[in-house]
Specification:
This protein is an alpha+beta fold. It is built from 2 helices and 12 strands. Strands 8-7-10-5-12 form a 5-stranded antiparallel β-sheet, with no helix packed on it. The chain has a 4-stranded antiparallel β-sheet with strand order 1-2-3-4, with no helix packed on it. Strands 9-6-11 form a 3-stranded antiparallel β-sheet. Helix 1 runs antiparallel to helix 2.
């Protein structure tokens, strides 16, 4: 990613949902290869560390669906651009991440996405009370680790009605499909 511009705006008083202190806001404009100029909007609380962000392409985009048939660990470097309006699905893992008020936009790679899901699942284990649910969560973590090692085949689907999300391949990969949504 190149051509980054930091632009700070004062959006007035924005209260932290965690500690109710005033949050700092920042926007950064970046040019993402094969995606275009994008504004990253971030709110950060200097008191408690709460952070939220979202992505907004400068140009209007059509609704899109990206489908990646994952079959080997080389694909872990493909970039994932997820806006807050994006639905992420991995049917083989029983994962469906829906947009919500707390949804964040972020840029990562496929391995980073899998690690994020693993971290959230590890956090959930601490509050689960059912042994069956704990075992299901542990099985999911094991499948994620197996996938990262390249030994579990799955399908990653991104669906964004606003077209603000994408899978950007880092090398020629016939297993990535892009279609209208």
């Amino acid at each position: 990613m190149s051509d980054q511009k930091n632009i700070n705006f004062n959006f007035g008083f924005t209260e932290c949902p965690s500690c109710q202190h005033k949050m700092d806001s920042m926007t950064k404009t970046i040019n993402i290869p094969n995606f275009g100029e994008t504004i990253i909007f971030t709110l950060i609380c200097s008191n408690c560390g709460y952070k939220t962000s979202d992505l907004f392409p400068v140009q209007d985009k059509e609704p899109k669906r990206y489908i990646l048939a994952y079959s080997n660990s080389k694909q872990l470097i493909h970039k994932i651009i997820r806006s807050s309006s994006c639905i992420i699905k991995i049917p083989e893992l029983g994962i469906s991440i829906e947009p919500s008020q707390a949804a964040e936009g972020y840029i990562t790679n496929l391995e980073g996405l899998l690690q994020k899901i693993k971290t959230i699942t590890l956090g959930l284990i601490k509050i689960l009370t059912s042994e069956k649910k704990i075992n299901n969560a542990l099985a999911l973590i094991q499948k994620i680790d197996t996938a990262i090692d390249g030994n579990f085949i799955f399908t990653l689907i991104l669906e964004d009605p606003k077209g603000n999300s994408a899978i950007i391949k880092e090398f020629e990969d016939e297993s990535l499909q892009e279609e209208p949504f």
